Amino acid sequence: MFLGTHTPRLDEKGRLFLPAKYRERMAGGLVVTRGQERCLFIFPMDEFVKVAEQMHQAPMTSRKARDYSRVFLSGASDEVPDRQGRFTIPAKLREYAGLDREVTVIGAGSRLEVWDTVAWNAYLEETEQSFAETEEEVIPGLF
User: Fold this and answer.
1) How far apart are CA 111 and CA 69, in angstroms?
2) Which of 119, 122, 44, 110 minimizes the C-alpha distance to 78?
3) Mind listing the pLDDT tens digit for each residue in 26-36?
């Protein structure tokens, strides 16, 4: 499970150093793709396969499912980190997420998310208060 917040930097070649605690899990390969709120999702290869299989179960007659799958899968890039835990984030994905040098990597359970640090801080500021004030059940069965 991926947890926590990390603040690595992209190098001049657009490479990201994975946080050390995640390198072993990602050593066999990963997939980086577009996420919501203009961040990037990074999945270990086996988790990405599960997500892709779920997408294939959606009805082809659903325009929303087709649109989502197209955007999600067309932006996906499979990568293998080097021995130092670095991998390149393709330029189109860096552009999509507005990434420069300062990035924030958050653990989001089965995946990592990569955010431009300014965008992450703005998102967190905007959503923390509503998180603290949540009264109803947002996730069924939780609390």
Assistant:
1) 17
2) 44
3) 999 999 999 99
